[in-house]
Amino acid sequence: MLVDSSGKFLYVQQSVGLVIYSIDQKTGQPVALTAPVASPLFQLGNVVADPAGPFLYSGSAAGIRVYQVSPTDGSLSEIAGSPL
C-alpha cells in the first residue's frame, strides 16, 4: 500500500492488479475509484511517493519508473523518458 503526497489517494497492489482509492479527508475512509488495472505493477517495498510533488517512483529491472499522479482521480501516467 502507498499513499500519495497529497494524502488523497491510496494505491493497493492486489493479486488482480493495482486498485486506486480516494481517501475521505474527514473520515479517512477509502473508496475504490478503479477496478484493478494491470499496469503499473508495483512490488512491496519497491515504490515511494515524492513528498513534495505529485509523483511516484518505482524500481524495475529497466531502471526507475516515474509516474505522475492526477490530482482529480489519482490515475497514474508514466512520464516521458521513464524508465530512467
H/I helix tally: 0
- Order of strands across the biggest sheet? 1-2-3-4
Taken in chain order, the helices and strands follow as EEEEEEEE
Rounded average pLDDT: 91
Low-confidence stretches: none
- Which structural class best describes the helix and strand composition? mainly beta
Calculate the terminal CA-CA distance, rounded to whole Å.
23 Å
Rg, Å, rounded: 12 Å
Q: Which outline best applies?
A: globular
Share of helical residues: under 10%
- What's the β-strand tally? 8
- Amount of beta strand: 35-45%
Main sheet characteristics:
4 strands, antiparallel
Notes on the protein architecture:
The protein is an all-beta fold. Helices cover 0% and strands 44% of the residues. It contains no helices and eight strands. A four-stranded antiparallel β-sheet has the order 1-2-3-4, with no helix packed on it. The radius of gyration is 12 Å and the shape is globular. The chain starts with a strand and ends in a 6-residue tail after the last strand.
Characteristic key phrases:
single chain, 84 residues, mainly beta, 4-stranded antiparallel beta sheet, 0% helix
Topology:
Layout lengths: L1 E2 L5 E6 L2 E7 L6 E3 L14 E3 L5 E6 L2 E7 L6 E3 L6
Antiparallel strand pairs: 1-2, 2-3, 3-4, 5-6, 6-7, 7-8
Brief summary:
This protein is 0% helix and 44% strand.
